[in-house]
Amino acid sequence: MVIPKGTIKEWPPIDDIDKRYVLASLEGTNHAFGPNCVSFEREFAEWNGNRYAITTNSGTAALHMCIAGCGLGVGDEIIVPAYSWSSSATCVLHHNCIPVFVDIDYDTMNIDVEKIEEKITEKTRAIIVVHLHGLSADMDRVLSIARKYNLKVIEDACQSHGAKYKGKKVGTIGDCAAFSFNQNKCLCSGEGGMFVTDNEQIYEEARKLWSFGEIRTPVEKRDYHAYALGWMYRNNDLTASFGRAQLTKLDDYLKVQRENAEILKEEIRDVNGLISPFEPEGYTHTWYNFTSRISPDDLGYRWDVPKLRDGIMKALQSEGVPVGIWQSFILPAMTVFQAKNAYGRGCPWKCQFARDLVYSPDDYPCAQKHCDTHFGMTTPLRAPNDKKVAKLVGIAFHKVFDNIDQIKENL
Ligand SMILES: *Cc1c(COP(=O)(O)O)cnc(C)c1O
Fold first, then answer.
1. Separation of 82 CA from ligand 1 center, angstroms?
2. For residue 240, with 0-12 CB atoms within 10 Å meaning exposed, 13-18 middle and 19 or more buried, which class applies?
3. Residue 210 pLDDT exceeds 70
4. Is the pLDDT of residue 117 over 80?
5. Using CA atoms, how far apart are residues 149 and 171, in angstroms rounded to an integer?
6. Is pTM, for the whole model, over 0.90?
7. SS3 for 289?
8. How far is the CA of 352 from the centre of ligand 1 (A)?
9. Domains in the chain, ordered, with CATH?
10. Which protein residue has the closest C-alpha to ligand 1 atom 2?
11. Is the pLDDT of residue 24 over 90?
12. pLDDT level of residue 224 (50, 70, 90 thresholds)
């Protein structure tokens, strides 16, 4: 076993700063949307470079707020990449809009900007880009398409805190954006999220959805009035205190992650049959998830590709490398889209304002190929793990791919 148990430290590292912030919250008196929430919004907005921020109980809530904030509604069609976390697309359904999927680009794993225009109809109102695994989407192309067709651009930045596109931080490029603070993300507060925008009108609209359709925030005088259809998406003080503590360390975490990823990339450069993730010119990857793919051709194997991938993954795991499949389904193949079992009675697709459409998984060959050939990895490259761990991961990759014939025989 190349990496003995206990070598890789768990995420996230917790120190006295976290304990101090969380204890201070406990000693306060407002445990709902309290002072830590207000500070977290201000500090995150400042860190990311946004005018407005609203903290939520999840990234998914923040995504739904993006849809509402942009004034999207019944029957509006929204472009979404065919490969992502489910809620990048179900947030569209939440607001009675219709997701229209676009295949991904195999190299970047992000939306294939060359395939967006062919999916645009007179009902298209917005594009959701997902900055997957820590790499920004091609924002210049997305923005120019959006300008041409008068579309809103929503950034799902749930995996990409600190990622940059041509020097700009994600979450500052489109009309509004969502971040997640779930356990696995680069900024972890257990669960939680942040809606951000620079646009006052989008901010006001999103805020209505956030807290019961009220307009005043609970830190001010409550008026208990629903001005609009609202959900309950507020964050709470304890969670926000944890998020604030982690935010003080986020830049250092991201620096460690980049250093470790660069070492690993160098270590595995010449591993035959392994495609490691790349960073195009002008982009700053955070390496949130170091996602590799296998090349069945280079490995001399053309049969059951997912099975070979699973065999390689198992071998890596038995060398102590925590790799895993991030998604085994592309989004349009998921039951909610195949069975269209959202609001019942076929809605929202059958709604009189919507266009019914067919989700045919065969239309997304790159996303499917990615599903079948990838495996992801997060913790070994994250703080407090260091160069030594990154090097060990490299050694394990070499060992497994050097013994590929043995893996193929045992499939
Ligand atoms: C995690 C994630 C979400 C959802 O965030 P939650 O906080 O879990 O609701 C949305 N989109 C992407 C790409 C994610 O990785």
1. 15
2. buried
3. yes
4. yes
5. 21
6. yes
7. coil
8. 31
9. 16-249 (3.40.640.10), 250-325+377-409 (3.90.1150)
10. 158
11. yes
12. confident
